[in-house]
Protein backbone atom coordinates (compact mmCIF):
# COMPACT_ATOMS: atom_id res chain seq x y z
CA UNK A 1 0.00 0.00 0.00
CA UNK A 2 1.67 3.13 -1.18
CA UNK A 3 0.75 6.63 -2.26
CA UNK A 4 3.08 7.03 -5.21
CA UNK A 5 4.65 4.33 -7.35
CA UNK A 6 7.98 6.11 -6.91
CA UNK A 7 8.04 4.49 -3.46
CA UNK A 8 8.39 1.00 -4.88
CA UNK A 9 10.62 1.42 -7.95
CA UNK A 10 13.28 -1.19 -8.65
CA UNK A 11 16.69 -0.06 -7.52
CA UNK A 12 17.99 0.17 -11.09
CA UNK A 13 14.96 2.14 -12.29
CA UNK A 14 15.26 4.45 -9.32
CA UNK A 15 18.97 5.08 -9.87
CA UNK A 16 18.35 5.86 -13.51
CA UNK A 17 15.71 8.38 -12.52
CA UNK A 18 18.04 9.86 -9.90
CA UNK A 19 20.88 10.30 -12.39
CA UNK A 20 18.52 11.97 -14.87
CA UNK A 21 17.15 14.31 -12.22
CA UNK A 22 20.61 15.06 -10.88
CA UNK A 23 21.74 16.18 -14.33
CA UNK A 24 18.68 18.40 -14.61
CA UNK A 25 19.30 19.77 -11.13
CA UNK A 26 22.87 20.71 -12.05
CA UNK A 27 21.60 22.51 -15.15
CA UNK A 28 19.02 24.40 -13.12
CA UNK A 29 21.45 25.18 -10.30
CA UNK A 30 23.85 26.70 -12.82
CA UNK A 31 21.34 29.54 -13.17
CA UNK A 32 22.03 30.68 -9.61
CA UNK A 33 24.94 33.03 -8.91
CA UNK A 34 26.39 30.69 -6.27
CA UNK A 35 26.43 27.45 -8.27
CA UNK A 36 27.38 29.16 -11.54
CA UNK A 37 30.55 30.35 -9.83
CA UNK A 38 31.19 27.09 -8.01
CA UNK A 39 30.71 24.94 -11.15
CA UNK A 40 33.00 27.19 -13.15
CA UNK A 41 35.70 26.99 -10.49
CA UNK A 42 35.44 23.20 -10.28
CA UNK A 43 34.94 22.63 -13.98
CA UNK A 44 31.57 20.97 -13.57
CA UNK A 45 28.62 20.52 -15.85
CA UNK A 46 25.82 17.97 -16.03
CA UNK A 47 27.72 15.72 -18.45
CA UNK A 48 30.00 14.46 -15.67
CA UNK A 49 27.04 12.57 -14.18
CA UNK A 50 26.84 9.18 -15.89
CA UNK A 51 25.45 7.30 -12.89
CA UNK A 52 24.22 8.47 -9.46
CA UNK A 53 27.54 7.44 -8.02
CA UNK A 54 29.16 10.33 -9.88
CA UNK A 55 27.56 12.62 -7.33
CA UNK A 56 30.84 12.12 -5.46
CA UNK A 57 32.46 14.38 -8.03
CA UNK A 58 30.39 17.37 -6.96
CA UNK A 59 31.52 19.72 -4.19
CA UNK A 60 29.65 19.92 -0.88
CA UNK A 61 27.44 22.85 0.05
CA UNK A 62 27.69 23.87 3.72
CA UNK A 63 25.54 25.94 6.02
CA UNK A 64 28.22 28.63 5.85
CA UNK A 65 27.93 28.67 2.06
CA UNK A 66 24.21 29.28 2.43
CA UNK A 67 24.80 32.01 4.98
CA UNK A 68 27.35 33.70 2.76
CA UNK A 69 24.75 33.74 -0.04
CA UNK A 70 21.95 35.06 2.17
CA UNK A 71 19.38 35.92 0.99
CA UNK A 72 19.17 35.37 -2.78
CA UNK A 73 22.45 33.80 -3.95
CA UNK A 74 21.04 30.32 -4.62
CA UNK A 75 17.93 31.35 -6.55
CA UNK A 76 17.76 30.07 -10.10
CA UNK A 77 14.87 32.29 -11.23
CA UNK A 78 13.78 35.91 -10.90
CA UNK A 79 12.23 36.72 -7.54
CA UNK A 80 8.85 37.17 -9.24
CA UNK A 81 8.61 33.42 -9.72
CA UNK A 82 8.75 32.70 -5.98
CA UNK A 83 5.71 32.56 -3.75
CA UNK A 84 6.96 31.59 -0.28
CA UNK A 85 9.99 31.70 1.95
CA UNK A 86 10.88 29.84 5.12
CA UNK A 87 13.84 30.10 7.43
CA UNK A 88 15.53 27.47 9.56
CA UNK A 89 14.59 27.89 13.19
CA UNK A 90 18.11 29.06 13.94
CA UNK A 91 18.69 26.39 16.60
CA UNK A 92 22.39 26.52 15.79
CA UNK A 93 23.07 30.15 14.86
CA UNK A 94 22.25 32.65 12.10
CA UNK A 95 19.22 31.52 10.11
CA UNK A 96 19.22 30.62 6.45
CA UNK A 97 16.36 31.46 4.10
CA UNK A 98 14.77 29.03 1.65
CA UNK A 99 12.54 30.11 -1.26
CA UNK A 100 9.85 28.13 -3.06
CA UNK A 101 8.10 28.49 -6.41
CA UNK A 102 4.49 27.30 -6.64
CA UNK A 103 5.75 24.12 -8.29
CA UNK A 104 8.18 23.54 -5.42
CA UNK A 105 5.35 23.93 -2.91
CA UNK A 106 3.27 21.41 -4.86
CA UNK A 107 6.09 18.87 -4.93
CA UNK A 108 6.64 19.34 -1.21
CA UNK A 109 2.93 18.89 -0.41
CA UNK A 110 2.95 15.65 -2.43
CA UNK A 111 5.95 14.35 -0.49
CA UNK A 112 4.30 15.25 2.80
CA UNK A 113 1.04 13.55 1.78
CA UNK A 114 3.03 10.45 0.83
CA UNK A 115 4.78 10.52 4.21
CA UNK A 116 1.56 10.70 6.16
CA UNK A 117 0.00 7.97 4.05
CA UNK A 118 2.96 5.71 4.89
CA UNK A 119 2.04 5.75 8.59
CA UNK A 120 -1.63 5.11 7.98
CA UNK A 121 -3.12 8.61 7.78
CA UNK A 122 -6.03 8.67 5.30
CA UNK A 123 -8.35 11.32 3.92
CA UNK A 124 -10.97 10.39 6.48
CA UNK A 125 -8.61 11.43 9.28
CA UNK A 126 -8.74 14.75 11.09
CA UNK A 127 -5.24 16.06 11.64
CA UNK A 128 -4.31 18.65 14.25
CA UNK A 129 -1.05 20.43 13.60
CA UNK A 130 0.35 21.31 17.02
CA UNK A 131 3.66 22.73 15.88
CA UNK A 132 4.39 26.42 15.47
CA UNK A 133 3.45 28.00 12.15
CA UNK A 134 5.36 31.01 10.82
CA UNK A 135 8.85 30.62 9.39
CA UNK A 136 9.25 27.14 10.84
CA UNK A 137 8.57 24.59 8.08
CA UNK A 138 6.77 22.19 10.44
CA UNK A 139 3.73 24.47 10.35
CA UNK A 140 2.81 25.09 6.73
CA UNK A 141 4.74 22.02 5.50
CA UNK A 142 2.61 19.58 7.45
CA UNK A 143 -0.47 21.70 6.90
CA UNK A 144 -0.42 21.62 3.10
CA UNK A 145 0.58 17.95 3.06
CA UNK A 146 -2.37 17.08 5.23
CA UNK A 147 -4.73 19.01 2.96
CA UNK A 148 -3.17 17.39 -0.09
CA UNK A 149 -3.95 13.99 1.39
CA UNK A 150 -7.50 15.21 1.91
CA UNK A 151 -7.57 15.31 5.70
CA UNK A 152 -9.64 17.83 7.58
CA UNK A 153 -6.79 19.93 8.97
CA UNK A 154 -6.86 21.84 12.25
CA UNK A 155 -4.12 24.51 12.26
CA UNK A 156 -3.89 24.72 16.05
CA UNK A 157 -0.29 25.94 16.20
CA UNK A 158 1.93 25.51 19.25
CA UNK A 159 1.17 25.83 22.95
CA UNK A 160 -2.12 26.43 24.77
CA UNK A 161 -2.73 22.88 25.88
CA UNK A 162 -6.29 23.50 27.12
CA UNK A 163 -7.41 24.76 23.74
CA UNK A 164 -5.55 21.91 22.00
CA UNK A 165 -7.49 19.38 24.06
CA UNK A 166 -10.80 21.12 23.37
CA UNK A 167 -10.18 21.14 19.60
CA UNK A 168 -9.18 17.49 19.67
CA UNK A 169 -12.37 16.51 21.48
CA UNK A 170 -14.70 18.82 19.57
CA UNK A 171 -13.50 17.78 16.11
CA UNK A 172 -12.63 14.17 16.83
CA UNK A 173 -8.98 14.57 15.91
CA UNK A 174 -7.40 11.25 14.93
CA UNK A 175 -3.87 12.36 13.95
CA UNK A 176 -1.50 14.79 15.64
CA UNK A 177 1.64 16.49 14.49
CA UNK A 178 3.58 17.27 17.64
CA UNK A 179 7.21 17.88 18.59
CA UNK A 180 8.41 14.99 20.81
CA UNK A 181 9.51 17.08 23.81
CA UNK A 182 6.15 18.85 23.71
CA UNK A 183 4.33 15.52 23.40
CA UNK A 184 5.81 14.41 26.72
CA UNK A 185 4.75 17.62 28.40
CA UNK A 186 1.34 17.53 26.74
CA UNK A 187 0.73 14.00 28.02
CA UNK A 188 1.08 15.30 31.59
CA UNK A 189 -1.29 18.19 30.90
CA UNK A 190 -3.96 15.92 29.44
CA UNK A 191 -4.04 13.97 32.70
CA UNK A 192 -3.98 17.15 34.78
CA UNK A 193 -7.04 18.35 32.90
CA UNK A 194 -8.77 15.17 34.02
CA UNK A 195 -8.78 13.25 30.73
CA UNK A 196 -7.77 9.69 30.15
CA UNK A 197 -5.56 9.55 27.02
CA UNK A 198 -6.98 6.11 26.24
CA UNK A 199 -10.36 7.74 25.72
CA UNK A 200 -9.17 10.46 23.39
CA UNK A 201 -9.97 10.05 19.65
CA UNK A 202 -6.33 10.20 18.48
CA UNK A 203 -4.57 7.20 16.95
CA UNK A 204 -1.49 8.47 15.15
CA UNK A 205 1.18 11.01 16.09
CA UNK A 206 3.77 12.35 13.70
CA UNK A 207 6.74 13.31 15.83
CA UNK A 208 9.91 14.89 14.53
CA UNK A 209 11.88 18.09 14.19
CA UNK A 210 14.25 17.25 17.04
CA UNK A 211 16.38 14.29 18.09
CA UNK A 212 14.78 11.82 20.46
CA UNK A 213 15.49 8.24 21.46
CA UNK A 214 13.52 5.05 20.94
CA UNK A 215 12.60 5.10 24.66
CA UNK A 216 11.25 8.61 24.30
CA UNK A 217 9.05 7.40 21.44
CA UNK A 218 7.83 4.48 23.55
CA UNK A 219 7.13 6.81 26.43
CA UNK A 220 5.06 9.06 24.16
CA UNK A 221 3.19 6.04 22.82
CA UNK A 222 2.40 4.74 26.30
CA UNK A 223 1.51 8.06 27.88
CA UNK A 224 -0.72 9.24 25.05
CA UNK A 225 -2.04 5.83 23.98
CA UNK A 226 -1.01 6.53 20.43
CA UNK A 227 1.28 5.21 17.69
CA UNK A 228 4.13 7.68 17.18
CA UNK A 229 6.11 7.88 13.94
CA UNK A 230 9.40 9.62 13.35
CA UNK A 231 9.50 12.40 10.75
CA UNK A 232 12.75 13.91 9.46
CA UNK A 233 13.30 17.04 7.47
CA UNK A 234 15.14 20.32 7.37
CA UNK A 235 14.29 23.64 5.82
CA UNK A 236 17.24 23.47 3.40
CA UNK A 237 15.55 20.37 1.89
CA UNK A 238 12.03 21.95 1.94
CA UNK A 239 11.18 20.97 5.50
CA UNK A 240 9.40 17.85 6.83
CA UNK A 241 8.77 15.03 4.36
CA UNK A 242 12.40 14.23 3.51
CA UNK A 243 12.45 10.88 5.31
CA UNK A 244 9.59 9.24 7.15
CA UNK A 245 8.91 6.05 9.02
CA UNK A 246 6.39 3.56 7.74
CA UNK A 247 4.20 1.47 10.02
CA UNK A 248 7.11 -0.94 10.58
CA UNK A 249 8.89 1.74 12.71
CA UNK A 250 12.29 0.45 11.65
CA UNK A 251 14.00 3.53 10.25
CA UNK A 252 12.85 6.36 8.01
CA UNK A 253 12.42 5.89 4.26
CA UNK A 254 14.20 8.62 2.34
CA UNK A 255 12.06 9.74 -0.62
CA UNK A 256 14.85 8.98 -3.04
CA UNK A 257 13.04 10.09 -6.19
CA UNK A 258 13.22 13.61 -4.71
CA UNK A 259 16.43 13.49 -2.69
CA UNK A 260 19.79 11.76 -2.85
CA UNK A 261 21.04 10.83 0.60
CA UNK A 262 24.68 10.05 1.37
CA UNK A 263 26.38 9.25 4.67
CA UNK A 264 29.94 10.49 4.88
CA UNK A 265 32.83 10.56 7.29
CA UNK A 266 32.76 14.23 8.37
CA UNK A 267 36.56 14.35 8.49
CA UNK A 268 37.40 12.88 5.08
CA UNK A 269 34.18 13.56 3.16
CA UNK A 270 34.24 9.95 1.89
CA UNK A 271 31.24 7.62 2.10
CA UNK A 272 31.28 5.43 5.21
CA UNK A 273 30.78 1.67 4.95
CA UNK A 274 27.13 0.56 4.66
CA UNK A 275 25.44 0.70 8.06
CA UNK A 276 28.04 2.90 9.73
CA UNK A 277 27.23 6.21 11.37
CA UNK A 278 28.33 9.41 9.67
CA UNK A 279 27.09 12.81 8.56
CA UNK A 280 24.01 12.87 6.36
CA UNK A 281 24.50 14.73 3.08
CA UNK A 282 21.41 15.60 1.04
CA UNK A 283 20.73 16.72 -2.53
CA UNK A 284 17.42 17.99 -3.89
CA UNK A 285 16.27 16.35 -7.14
CA UNK A 286 12.90 17.97 -7.73
CA UNK A 287 13.37 21.55 -6.59
CA UNK A 288 13.46 24.09 -9.37
CA UNK A 289 13.69 27.44 -7.57
CA UNK A 290 16.48 26.74 -5.13
CA UNK A 291 18.21 23.41 -5.72
CA UNK A 292 20.85 22.48 -3.15
CA UNK A 293 23.57 20.00 -3.96
CA UNK A 294 25.37 17.78 -1.43
CA UNK A 295 24.23 19.72 1.59
CA UNK A 296 26.16 18.90 4.77
CA UNK A 297 23.27 18.55 7.22
CA UNK A 298 25.57 18.02 10.24
CA UNK A 299 23.04 15.40 11.35
CA UNK A 300 24.54 12.06 12.33
CA UNK A 301 22.86 8.85 11.30
CA UNK A 302 23.38 5.64 9.30
CA UNK A 303 21.61 3.75 6.55
CA UNK A 304 19.57 0.86 7.90
CA UNK A 305 20.81 -2.22 6.01
CA UNK A 306 18.40 -4.57 4.28
CA UNK A 307 14.90 -4.29 2.89
CA UNK A 308 11.87 -3.01 4.73
CA UNK A 309 8.95 -5.38 5.25
CA UNK A 310 6.51 -2.74 4.03
CA UNK A 311 7.67 -3.28 0.45
CA UNK A 312 8.98 0.24 -0.16
CA UNK A 313 12.29 0.05 -1.93
CA UNK A 314 13.76 3.35 -0.80
CA UNK A 315 16.65 3.30 1.61
CA UNK A 316 16.04 4.03 5.28
CA UNK A 317 18.01 6.19 7.66
CA UNK A 318 18.14 5.45 11.34
CA UNK A 319 16.93 7.95 13.91
CA UNK A 320 19.28 10.92 14.17
CA UNK A 321 21.90 10.29 16.86
CA UNK A 322 22.59 13.98 17.20
CA UNK A 323 23.88 17.02 15.41
CA UNK A 324 27.56 17.56 14.98
CA UNK A 325 26.90 21.04 16.45
CA UNK A 326 25.46 19.52 19.64
CA UNK A 327 28.62 17.69 20.62
CA UNK A 328 29.87 18.64 24.08
CA UNK A 329 33.46 18.24 25.13
CA UNK A 330 33.71 17.70 28.86
CA UNK A 331 37.03 16.78 30.46
CA UNK A 332 38.28 15.92 27.00
CA UNK A 333 35.47 13.48 26.29
CA UNK A 334 32.99 13.94 23.42
CA UNK A 335 29.40 13.66 24.57
CA UNK A 336 26.13 13.90 22.65
CA UNK A 337 22.95 14.90 24.48
CA UNK A 338 21.18 11.85 22.99
CA UNK A 339 23.55 9.55 24.90
CA UNK A 340 22.23 11.12 28.07
CA UNK A 341 18.61 10.93 26.91
CA UNK A 342 19.10 7.27 26.05
CA UNK A 343 19.99 6.49 29.66
CA UNK A 344 17.58 8.70 31.56
CA UNK A 345 14.49 8.04 29.46
CA UNK A 346 15.00 4.29 29.84
CA UNK A 347 14.70 4.51 33.65
CA UNK A 348 11.18 3.71 34.89
CA UNK A 349 11.36 6.33 37.67
CA UNK A 350 12.08 9.15 35.24
CA UNK A 351 9.22 11.36 34.11
CA UNK A 352 8.90 13.55 31.03
CA UNK A 353 11.73 16.03 30.94
CA UNK A 354 15.44 16.51 31.56
CA UNK A 355 18.05 19.17 30.94
CA UNK A 356 21.83 19.19 30.83
CA UNK A 357 23.71 22.03 32.52
CA UNK A 358 27.35 22.79 31.96
CA UNK A 359 29.20 24.77 34.58
CA UNK A 360 32.71 25.40 35.75
CA UNK A 361 34.19 24.57 39.12
CA UNK A 362 37.60 26.13 39.51
CA UNK A 363 39.06 25.49 36.10
CA UNK A 364 37.23 22.27 35.47
CA UNK A 365 34.13 21.88 33.31
CA UNK A 366 31.36 19.93 35.00
CA UNK A 367 28.16 18.48 33.75
CA UNK A 368 24.90 18.29 35.64
CA UNK A 369 21.82 16.41 34.52
CA UNK A 370 18.52 17.56 36.00
CA UNK A 371 15.89 14.89 35.71
CA UNK A 372 12.17 15.11 36.37
CA UNK A 373 10.98 12.19 38.48
CA UNK A 374 7.49 10.71 38.43
CA UNK A 375 5.25 11.99 41.23
CA UNK A 376 4.96 8.63 42.96
CA UNK A 377 8.73 8.43 43.53
CA UNK A 378 8.94 11.82 45.16
CA UNK A 379 7.08 10.61 48.22
CA UNK A 380 9.82 8.04 48.83
CA UNK A 381 12.20 8.66 51.70
CA UNK A 382 15.51 10.42 51.25
CA UNK A 383 17.59 7.25 51.10
CA UNK A 384 15.57 5.83 48.24
CA UNK A 385 15.96 9.07 46.29
CA UNK A 386 19.67 9.21 46.96
CA UNK A 387 19.99 5.64 45.78
CA UNK A 388 18.19 6.53 42.56
CA UNK A 389 20.40 9.56 42.06
CA UNK A 390 23.48 7.38 42.39
CA UNK A 391 22.13 4.77 40.03
CA UNK A 392 21.41 7.34 37.34
CA UNK A 393 24.88 8.86 37.76
CA UNK A 394 26.54 5.44 37.48
CA UNK A 395 24.59 4.52 34.35
CA UNK A 396 25.46 7.84 32.80
CA UNK A 397 29.12 7.38 33.65
CA UNK A 398 29.14 4.01 31.87
CA UNK A 399 27.69 5.66 28.77
CA UNK A 400 29.53 9.00 28.63
CA UNK A 401 32.70 8.10 30.59
CA UNK A 402 32.39 11.16 32.82
CA UNK A 403 30.55 11.20 36.14
CA UNK A 404 27.87 13.86 36.03
CA UNK A 405 26.06 15.46 38.97
CA UNK A 406 22.49 14.30 38.98
CA UNK A 407 19.68 16.37 40.44
CA UNK A 408 16.21 14.90 40.81
CA UNK A 409 13.43 17.40 40.40
CA UNK A 410 9.64 17.34 40.43
CA UNK A 411 7.41 17.19 37.39
CA UNK A 412 7.16 20.43 35.40
CA UNK A 413 10.01 22.12 37.25
CA UNK A 414 12.16 22.30 34.12
CA UNK A 415 10.88 25.11 31.89
CA UNK A 416 9.29 23.83 28.66
CA UNK A 417 9.59 25.82 25.48
CA UNK A 418 6.86 25.58 22.83
CA UNK A 419 9.25 24.83 19.99
CA UNK A 420 12.25 22.53 19.88
CA UNK A 421 13.60 21.66 23.32
CA UNK A 422 16.80 23.28 24.48
CA UNK A 423 18.56 20.29 25.99
CA UNK A 424 21.81 21.96 27.03
CA UNK A 425 22.20 25.08 29.14
CA UNK A 426 25.75 26.37 29.20
CA UNK A 427 26.43 28.33 32.37
CA UNK A 428 30.18 28.40 31.90
CA UNK A 429 30.47 31.83 30.31
CA UNK A 430 28.11 33.44 32.78
CA UNK A 431 30.21 32.36 35.74
CA UNK A 432 33.50 33.69 34.46
P1 LIG B 1 17.26 24.40 12.73
O1 LIG B 1 18.60 23.90 12.28
O2 LIG B 1 17.28 25.85 13.02
O3 LIG B 1 16.63 23.58 13.81
P2 LIG B 1 15.19 23.40 10.91
O4 LIG B 1 13.96 23.91 11.53
O5 LIG B 1 15.30 23.39 9.44
O6 LIG B 1 16.39 24.25 11.42
O7 LIG B 1 15.42 21.95 11.48
C1 LIG B 1 16.14 20.95 10.83
C2 LIG B 1 16.93 20.13 11.81
O8 LIG B 1 16.09 19.59 12.83
C3 LIG B 1 17.57 18.93 11.18
O9 LIG B 1 18.78 19.27 10.54
C4 LIG B 1 17.80 18.04 12.40
O10 LIG B 1 18.94 18.43 13.14
C5 LIG B 1 16.58 18.32 13.26
N1 LIG B 1 15.56 17.28 13.01
C6 LIG B 1 14.50 17.36 12.18
N2 LIG B 1 13.77 16.22 12.23
C7 LIG B 1 14.39 15.39 13.09
C8 LIG B 1 14.13 14.06 13.57
N3 LIG B 1 13.08 13.35 13.20
N4 LIG B 1 15.01 13.54 14.44
C9 LIG B 1 16.08 14.24 14.84
N5 LIG B 1 16.37 15.49 14.46
C10 LIG B 1 15.54 16.07 13.58
ZN1 LIG C 1 8.95 0.52 5.35
TrEMBL record:
Residues 81-282 form the AMP-dependent synthetase/ligase domain. It comes from the Bacteria. GO terms for molecular function: nucleotide binding; phenylacetate-CoA ligase activity. Pathway: Aromatic compound metabolism; phenylacetate degradation. Gene3D superfamilies: 3.30.300.30, N-terminal domain of ligase-like (3.40.50.12780). It holds the Pfam family AMP-binding_C_2. It catalyses: 2-phenylacetate + ATP + CoA = phenylacetyl-CoA + AMP + diphosphate. The keyword Iron does not apply. GO terms for biological process: phenylacetate catabolic process. Catalyzes the activation of phenylacetic acid (PA) to phenylacetyl-CoA (PA-CoA). Belongs to the phenylacetyl-CoA ligase family. This is Phenylacetate-coenzyme A ligase. The lineage of its organism: Bacteria, Pseudomonadati, Thermodesulfobacteriota, Desulfovibrionia, Desulfovibrionales.
Amino acid sequence: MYFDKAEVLDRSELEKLQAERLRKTIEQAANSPYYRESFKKNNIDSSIIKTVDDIKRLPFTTKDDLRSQYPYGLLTKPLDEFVRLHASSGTTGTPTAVFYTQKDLDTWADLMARSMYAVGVRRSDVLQNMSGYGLFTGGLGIHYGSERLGCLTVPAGAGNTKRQIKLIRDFNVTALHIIPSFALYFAGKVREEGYDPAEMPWKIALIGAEPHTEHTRQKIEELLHIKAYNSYGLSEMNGPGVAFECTEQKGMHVWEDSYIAEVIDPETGEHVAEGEIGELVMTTLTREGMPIIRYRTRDLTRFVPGKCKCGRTSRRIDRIVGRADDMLIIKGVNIYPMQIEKIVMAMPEVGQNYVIELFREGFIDQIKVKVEIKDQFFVEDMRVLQGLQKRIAAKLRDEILVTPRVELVQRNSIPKSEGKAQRVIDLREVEN
